[in-house]
Design a protein that fits this description.
Layout (H helix, E strand, L loop, with lengths): L9 H22 L3 H17 L10 H19 L8 H13 L1 H17 L2 H12 L4 H8 L3 H26 L1
Helix pairs in contact: 1-2, 1-3, 2-3, 3-4, 5-8, 7-8
Length: 175
């Protein structure tokens, strides 16, 4: 017999959600490439997870359960038709299955990325934050910094290369 949310501790949900939220966001982002749409789907997924938490069986794989809900939210997003998926439902299912299977590897990469981001020079980190955490386009960043878009684009490419090499080094030390 499951307990309702009113009987379950919010800490129980928050513990699981905080452990897997970055990975779950990555899952959604894989299926919904547009930044703002992915954020909307992730927020909807988070709300549904909380509302349905009484249906989650403690001791089972929270991430797998959350991915199923996220998958339904992705499909609902595309059915609402604001944007059309580039992929069929079958392809989205296959992508979802692959991302779910590779979850542990993605967690390791995300952890390595966090360490690598901390090693960046402040200016480089700011560019990455502007582009990926705030979702700003390269041209918008360039305008804000009074730089050319080509200059910002080259800087981001250089930073990407540095982050990629740093992540690969960090992962090779783990194995």
């Amino acid at each position: 017999m499951t307990r309702s949310n009113s009987q379950r501790s919010p800490d129980e949900f928050l513990g699981q959600f905080s452990r897997y939220s970055l990975r779950l966001y990555g899952f959604v982002r894989t299926l919904v490439p547009e930044y703002q749409d992915a954020n909307d789907v992730f927020q909807n997924t988070s709300t549904v997870l909380w509302k349905k938490f009484d249906e989650y069986s403690p001791g089972t794989d929270f991430f797998a359960w959350a991915c199923q809900i996220a998958r339904y939210e992705v499909f609902a997003h595309y059915r609402r038709g604001r944007r059309h998926s580039l992929f069929s439902e079958e392809v989205l299912d296959a992508l979802a299955a692959e991302v779910a299977l590779r979850g542990e590897e993605l967690d390791q990469r995300a952890e390595a990325l966090g360490g690598c981001l901390e090693k960046l020079e402040p200016g480089d980190r700011m560019l990455i934050e502007e582009r990926y955490f705030h979702g700003r386009k390269t041209a918008e960043i360039a305008q804000r910094l009074s730089r050319s878009a080509a200059s910002v684009y080259r800087s981001l490419n250089r930073i990407h290369d540095r982050l990629f090499r740093c992540i690969e080094r960090a992962l090779s030390r783990e194995f």
